[in-house]
Description:
The chain has 4 helices and 7 strands; from the N terminus they run ββαααββββαβ. By secondary structure, it is α+β, with helices and mostly antiparallel strands.
Amino acid sequence: MITRGDAQRPSTYIQYRKGLCDDCWGGCCTLPVEVSANDLIRLELITEEEAAISLKKVAQKLMKVKIIQAYHQKSQLFVLEQRYGRDCIYLNKDRRCTVYLKRPEVCRAFPKIGPKPGFCPYRRK
């Protein structure tokens, strides 16, 4: 049986509407988060100079300190680390984003983009 709000199963997502995030458990924050160098700069994890010199070196540095788990050289996208193989590293114990004002573009655009555009894995806290 599939329960509504399973982040790994887009077929369980519900149509997004304003205010839905207010009492949600943060299911979207359990999806892999792909970020660009610009996102890493906004998050103050790297400088513009570091990004201009070598994204591969940036990836090595951030993997070492467990900020990212992967780097895709072809797309130049990084994948943020996840706690316990699931939660975004920036999700706190209350299931709220600790970097909300600096959050990556993919997070800003969700659920307009994502596994099922316009829908989200809402589940009440």
